[in-house]
Amino acid sequence: MEKVLYINCCIRENESRSKELADCFLDAIKDRYEITELNLMQENLSYMMGDFFEERQVLLEKDDKTHPRFDYAHAFASYDKIVVAAPFWDLSFPALLKVYIENICVDGITFGCDETGMFGLCKATKMVFLTSRGGFFNDSPMEMGSLYLKTMCQFFGIDAYVCVAADGLDTGARPVVDIMNDAKKEALAVAKDF
To answer: Are 21 and 187 in contact (CB under 8 A)?
Structure first.
């Protein structure tokens, strides 16, 4: 059975529309995949600064990638597929997700570099990003969260990327329940081909 890493960055866990969308998607795939949830709100993630950054540099210079601080990177690189759920915040996603991504970007684990350039080392073949947005940002140049994750997929060597977004939830243009139902239908269609 293939393994899926579910990266949960739904900050408002009890009221999160992104989590509602993710739950729908995960429920549709749970019989076909072994799913491991990484709830970022419960992790002790650190920013790259000060002693934490310096320790990382020393370990990389020694080529010691067995240190526990690289566990997130090793785990991410080992999964067959990735699911990320996070709300649209400040034209992107919560900073917590970016901190996690900084922690998994490790030369020799999730990506490599040689005389020909950079290349991905991750096992995953697909990433799905599930998000909810208050405004209308589908196909907008102001939407940087999905664009960033799609680009990171290329960096990590993950060939396929799909974003499912419940868009325009806070505009009043359509009932929230209708927008969510449409997004869930799209999520279920993506789950079939996951």
So the answer is: yes
